[in-house]
Amino acid sequence: xxxxxxxxxxxxxxxxxxxxxxxxxxxxxxxxxxxxxxxxxxxxxxxxxxxxxxxxxxxxxxxxxxxxxxxxxxxxxxxxxxxxxxxxxxxxxxxxxxxxxxxxxxxxxxxxxxxxxxxxxxxxxxxxxxxxxxxxxxxxxxxxxxxxxxxxxxxxxxxxxxxxxxxxxxxxxxxxxx
Length: 178
Known about the structure:
The protein has about 180 residues and is α+β, with helices and mostly antiparallel strands. Helix content is about 30%, strand content about 30%. It has six helices and eight strands. The strands form two sheets. Strands 1-2-3-4-5 form a five-stranded antiparallel beta sheet, sandwiched between helices. Strand 4 and strand 5 form a beta hairpin. The longest helix has 19 residues, at about 160-175. The protein starts with a helix and ends with a helix. About 30% of the residues are buried.
């Protein structure tokens, strides 16, 4: 790849992401507490004890938000954030934490979500060779119970991010056919 093509590729990407497979015991204690609190508030059971697989992703923003995002305040408030995604036989749980955004946890029934690529995310360069993220659509607890909404789960394009996404898609299929 030429230097110009590499520069163009980096300019297109919004984030540099690295993922690592984790089990629930490896989750940062503050995030574990937030996940457990969310699970209790939404009657999900012991999601940390029941977790089949988990993945932690570190996302570093490569450039500042555009003018419109800065004016409206809709851009990512953090230059770096971490996300933890885990799934149980019944639920997908995603926790995100950053210095300015704080910590947010969401969950959805595994048999009620779909995991596809987002045309909008692709348009803005969030889906490329360095990112194996996925647009997850479902009825998210704590957000809305009226309609399915999509949430972009950023995962690294590394082996752990890709493996987690493959396993998550298989788990969704299993949940829907069981």
